[in-house]
């Protein structure tokens, strides 16, 4: 009971600081600076995922034209499709030459062709 009352007291003490912006994580940006826009953050995340997908395809395919065609196709896909293919490419990277990696690469190829 004593531990719970201590946790409650600490929480109630920190609440006014968080609301007022005194805690750095909740404080507003200094005047003259602008926080990054959500669209620019999403774009950099998308570019990072596309780069990860292309690096997996580079390691797993022998044809150099595959990267160019895949890059052209990836730009046209939606964010959800990019996230799906990026998660599959992580599976390929993690499992190396195992059967799960082969299946994930097959799914990546099918999604690129059929999307």
Identify the notable features of this structure and list them briefly.
mainly alpha; globular; 5 helices; 115 residues
Provide an overview of this structure.
The protein is an all-alpha fold and 115 residues long. The chain folds into two domains: 1-32, no CATH class; 42-115, no CATH class. The chain contains five helices and no strands. The chain is globular and about 55 Å long. The model is unreliable at 7-12 and 14-27 (pLDDT under 50).
In short:
With 115 residues, the protein is mostly helical. It has 5 helices and no strands.
Task: Work out the number of β strands.
Answer: 0
- Look at the structure and give the mean pLDDT: 74
Query: What portion of the residues fall into strands of 2 or more residues?
Result: under 5%
Report the order of strands and helices: HHHHH
Tally of individual helices? 5
Helix content: over 70%
Biggest sheet character: none
The gyration radius over C-alpha positions equals 23 Å
- What is the CA–CA distance across the termini? 58 Å
Number of domains: 2
Low-confidence stretches: 7-12, 14-27
Q: What structural category arises from helix and sheet content?
A: mainly alpha
* Overall spatial form: globular
Topology at a glance:
Elements lengths: L1 H19 L17 H23 L4 H12 L2 H17 L3 H16 L1
């Amino acid at each position: 009971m004593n531990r719970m009352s201590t946790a409650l007291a600490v929480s109630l003490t920190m609440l006014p600081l968080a609301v007022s912006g005194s805690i750095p994580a909740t404080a507003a940006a200094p005047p003259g600076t602008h926080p990054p826009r959500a669209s620019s953050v999403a774009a950099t995340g998308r570019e990072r995922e596309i780069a990860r997908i292309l690096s997996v395809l580079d390691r797993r395919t022998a044809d150099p034209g595959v990267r160019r065609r895949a890059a052209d196709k990836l730009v046209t896909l939606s964010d959800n499709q990019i996230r799906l293919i990026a998660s599959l490419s992580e599976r390929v990277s993690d499992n190396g030459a195992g059967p799960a990696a082969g299946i994930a690469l097959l799914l990546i190829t099918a999604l690129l062709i059929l999307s």
